[in-house]
Design goal:
9 helices, mainly alpha
Length: 241
């Protein structure tokens, strides 16, 4: 995960993922020199990466104290996901009402193709697709201001949204939730699309919440369990629509 020539984006992802999954504990000091040596880069890109993580709320930077891992509480995480759910609902509703015929076809084609990624348990590839899927909804809303707000909010939640795919069965459930959104958009049903998108982000919030810091003084423990409602098998795409 950490190699010579690592980019700032890769550093943000690597450090952010380690914070979210508990490898780096709340309050732990993030030394620029040590990180620069570990990533085999100068201190300048490390400083930039820590700045981005600070903007996400995962790192605290204080004068004369350097950077430390922030405490991310369940309450704060829930508040961010609550905002994200509302924004995604707006994007999905507007997409159902405003997407062009070409945009709808592209959304459905990419969605159906992603079923293969779930069948192969291709977590990284599906994660990339997932980002592209949601971006299509943001663009499909055809509202520059809402697009900017949604992308900004999503960037702060990115490490937590990635963490959901560590949970057993989550890839298949994600696909199924996407399918409800796509079906509503293809029908032009804005209300149904918005409700489906909101429900989807709410489930993502629940799946990701297991990684939020509860008590920074306790040893690092990460629960990777899901309820029976959160597990699921991928339906056969050939049997759909």
């Amino acid at each position: 995960m950490i190699r010579s020539g690592t980019t700032v984006d890769q550093m943000v992802r690597a450090i952010g993922d380690r914070i979210v999954t508990g490898f780096l504990r709340p309050g732990e000091k993030l030394d620029e020199a040590s990180l620069a040596a570990r990533f085999d880069v100068s201190r300048t890109p490390v400083r930039e990466a820590l700045g981005r993580l600070s903007a996400m709320g995962l790192v605290e930077r204080r004068p004369n104290r350097g950077a430390t891992v922030a405490v991310v509480t369940q309450e704060h995480l829930a508040s961010m996901f609550e905002s994200m759910a509302e924004l995604e609902a707006i994007c999905a509703r507007f997409s159902a009402e405003r997407m062009t015929a070409g945009e709808r076809r592209a959304l459905e084609v990419e969605h159906q193709a992603s079923a293969r990624l779930v069948q192969l348990a291709a977590e990284e590839d599906y994660e990339y697709f997932n980002t592209e899927f949601h971006t299509r909804l943001y663009r499909g809303a055809h509202s520059k201001h809402i697009y900017e707000l949604t992308v900004m909010t999503r960037s702060r939640l990115a490490p937590f949204r990635r963490a959901q795919f560590m949970l057993p069965g989550r890839l298949a459930k994600s696909w199924q939730e996407h399918d409800v959104i796509v079906t509503a958009i293809m029908r032009g049903d804005g209300a149904a699309a918005g409700n489906a998108a909101k429900d989807h982000v709410s489930i993502v919030s629940e799946a990701s919440a297991v990684f939020a810091a509860v008590d920074p003084m306790k040893p690092a423990t990460v629960s990777i369990g899901v309820s029976s409602e959160q597990s699921g098998e991928l339906p056969n795409p050939s049997a759909m629509r």
